[in-house]
Write a structure and sequence with these properties.
Elements lengths: L1 H22 L4 H12 L11 H21 L2 H6 L1 H25 L4 H12 L3 H10 L6 H26 L9 H35 L3 H21 L4 H12 L5 H25 L6 H29 L5 H10 L5 H12 L5 H23 L1 H8 L1 H4 L12 H5 L6 E4 L3 H12 L4 E5 L2 H9 L4 E3 L5 H6 L7 E4 L4 H14 L5 E5 L5 H7 L3 E4 H16 L4 H13 L26 E6 L23 E6 L2 E4 L12 E6 L1 H13 L2
Helix pairs in contact: 1-2, 2-12, 3-11, 3-12, 5-6, 5-8, 5-13, 6-15, 7-8, 7-16, 8-14, 8-15, 9-10, 9-11, 10-11, 13-14, 13-16, 14-17, 15-16, 25-26
Length: about 650
């Protein structure tokens, strides 16, 4: 029960503080760090210990690395090898070397200096990725360089975690054997997950997608991410490494966008908890005694790291000086894996807790400053390098993700359903140079169309977050072309709950749910069967010599009247709608009134009731037809009544006509 109280305190503080930071336009990461500093054991101690939350918070980094993997592919990693190995490798090596020499110069033991240097050499993957994603800068030049360096840092963190326990040993092979073993494990995991992704993951998600179940799809994504993290953790490697490799495998499939959307809520909540635990590591009461060392390390860390990465990005990355500076500014802070390295060092008694607290304070404060530096990296870069950068726009590359693809789209058309109708519409729009994006849940269709270069993505258009990622706020028009009218109606309602002004065209197979769609907010409802009948009637009348202008006038009149004139039809045994939910299907039925029927001699109005009204479309008496007969018209024996009703109400109406019950 005590733990439950701590969770309530944490949630209450997080909601209040993050909402306040949002209101004053500060990054939410700062809010989470502030909550940890205040409620943690180093602050007001509302929560005396965060040990029970640390393990759960680590999953925030796991899901973050998983979503990073979704953004990449093996081909992209090969193309990023200069940033990944060149920039990342040199940066970690030089930062560790300089920081270790500096620590040794100021009196730290060599092993202690090495551990502190390793903690300072790494940047915060969680902060950088989250902030760049919010700013839509993941695929800029400085964004790609930053991610490449971060990926190597995450791999280097695994090496540090192997080296630190080895420093306790005195044998000659203390370092060589663990390194070779870790290398073998890493290569083996990569091979296993690569084969698993190629042979099992794609077929697995094809089958899961065919179930059309959001719950099953989400559970499958969680199983893959956590399963890969468990595998690497079981092999004494980083859980984040396994999650990244799993995301990398799924990033090669057409399901990457839907998976990213399903994982995002888990990632964001657990990342928030992770940042709270980081903030709680800072013991405010220790700062007054060592504040000068904290400030010195903080300034030295940001200045040296930014300058070093700027030089490396300029020389190795071959980018402009302004973009190199922005890359350095983004990565100038410490990282979450630094806390893990310090914790391992303390557990092996290689670093004094007081000394570690100084480094922790400096890293935490650098992470506190980092969101501001990242948010204003462009403004700072333009201010310093205004001549070089003034005429150079951010070079956003085309993303394979739906949100990134639509980020620059404006006045586009969203096609919900990429079947036969949706594909025809997309071709017409392409011919007129009108941008469009399509959403569909058929994995085979999306796989084929994506390979062909179509702007089609795997995503459930009934979900608000998918519609938002497709650019609903900026869309010019929406077309719903689902064959499943239930799904089409749900999609329409979601669209109207998010935006009321956008025109929405709905394709249906017939007119049975025409009124329902119109009441739900459809701008136009186009029944496929009725349009086919109108086209056939147009050709027929044209061949019979009826003037084209008269035919066009009739078609326009029917459209303006919302098909009311031609609504209703007689169903046959071969009608496919008989296989669906008949209680929601209105159709025409003919009933002959026998001599001894209850309705004979009574008016239509008399045998009609509010619960089941008698909707008589046509009354036939002998050879005379009475379309839409007057409700006061008397029914006679032998009359044929054409009723517009559902099968259930037809039974009740038949009983009333025959027996009056």
């Amino acid at each position: 029960m005590e733990q439950f109280q701590y969770i309530l305190i944490l949630l209450a503080c997080a909601v209040a503080v993050v909402a306040l930071f949002r209101r004053i336009h500060l990054p939410p990461i700062l809010g989470y760090l502030f909550v940890g500093m205040i409620v943690g054991p180093g602050g007001l101690a509302f929560i005396p210990s965060i040990q029970n939350l640390t393990f759960l918070a680590e999953f925030g980094v796991v899901f973050l690395m998983f979503t990073i993997g979704l953004e990449f592919s093996w081909a992209r990693i090969v193309t990023m090898r200069r940033a990944l190995l060149g920039l990342g490798g040199i940066q970690v090596l030089l930062c560790t070397l300089v920081a270790a020499l500096g620590g040794w110069y100021f009196g730290l033991a060599p092993k202690t200096a090495f551990i502190a240097a390793g903690a300072l050499a790494l940047s915060s993957t969680a902060v950088v990725i989250k902030q760049l994603a919010e700013q839509h800068e993941l695929h800029t030049t400085h964004g790609r360089l930053s991610i490449g360096i971060l990926l190597f840092q995450d791999l280097a963190a695994v090496l540090f975690l192997i080296l630190i326990p080895a420093l306790v040993n005195k044998g000659d092979n203390a370092l060589l054997v663990p390194l070779l073993l870790a290398l073998a494990k890493g290569v083996g995991v990569c091979i296993v997950l690569a084969l698993f992704g190629q042979w099992l993951l794609r077929p697995l998600f094809h089958e899961v997608a065919k179930s059309h179940s959001n719950e099953v799809f989400m559970m499958a994504a969680l199983l893959v991410a956590l399963g890969a993290a468990w595998l690497t953790h079981h092999l004494q490697l980083s859980m984040a490494l396994g999650a990244f490799l799993a995301g990398l495998m799924l990033g090669e499939t057409e399901f990457r966008h839907q998976i990213e959307i399903d994982i995002r809520p888990f990632r964001d909540v657990l990342l928030g908890l992770f940042f709270v635990t980081i903030g709680a590591l800072l013991h405010i009461d220790t700062l007054p005694n060592h504040w000068h060392w904290v400030v010195f390390i903080l300034i030295s860390l940001i200045a040296f790291k930014a300058a070093l990465i700027m030089v490396l990005a300029r020389l190795v990355g071959a980018v402009s000086l302004a973009k190199a500076f922005r890359t350095g500014l983004i990565l100038a802070q410490g990282g979450e894996f630094g806390f893990v390295i310090l914790t391992v060092g303390i557990n092996h008694k290689l670093i004094d807790p007081i000394q570690s607290q100084i480094v922790v304070a400096a890293v935490v404060l650098s992470i506190v400053v980092a969101p501001l530096l990242i948010r204003y990296n462009k403004a700072i870069g333009n201010w310093i390098f205004r001549k070089q950068e003034a005429s150079l726009p951010d070079d956003e590359s085309k993303s394979t993700q739906l949100a990134d693809h639509t980020a620059e789209l404006k006045d586009h058309v969203i096609i919900c359903g990429f079947g036969r109708v949706g594909q025809i519409l997309a071709r017409f729009l392409e011919q007129e140079n009108i941008p469009s994006v399509a959403l569909d849940l058929d994995p085979m269709r999306i796989s084929s169309s994506s390979l062909a270069g179509e702007n089609a993505f795997f995503g459930d258009a009934r979900r608000a977050d998918v519609l938002a990622a497709a650019g609903l706020a900026r869309a010019r028009m929406i077309v719903i072309s689902f064959a499943d009218e239930t799904a089409a109606l749900e999609t329409l309602r979601h669209i109207r709950s998010l935006r009321l002004d956008v025109p929405v065209f709905v394709r249906t197979r017939n007119d049975s749910n025409l009124k329902t769609f119109q009441e739900a907010g459809a701008t136009e409802v186009v029944p496929e069967s009725l349009e086919a009948s109108l086209m056939l009637a147009s050709h027929l009348l044209l061949m019979l010599g009826v003037p084209a202008s008269r035919i066009l006038f009739k078609i326009r009149a029917i459209h303006s009247d919302r098909y009311r004139v031609i609504q209703g039809f007689f169903k046959g045994t071969d009608d496919p709608t008989l296989l669906e939910e008949e209680e929601t299907r209105m159709s025409l039925h003919a009933i002959t009134v026998p001599d001894n029927a209850y309705a004979a001699g009574k008016t239509i109005e008399e045998i009609s009731e509010p619960e089941t009204p008698l909707a008589v479309k046509v009354l036939t008496r002998g050879t005379v037809r009475y379309p839409d007969p007057d409700p006061k018209m008397v029914i006679e024996a032998g009359d044929v009544l054409v009723l517009h009703a559902t099968p259930e109400s037809l039974y009740l109406l038949g009983e009333r006509i025959l027996r009056g019950s």
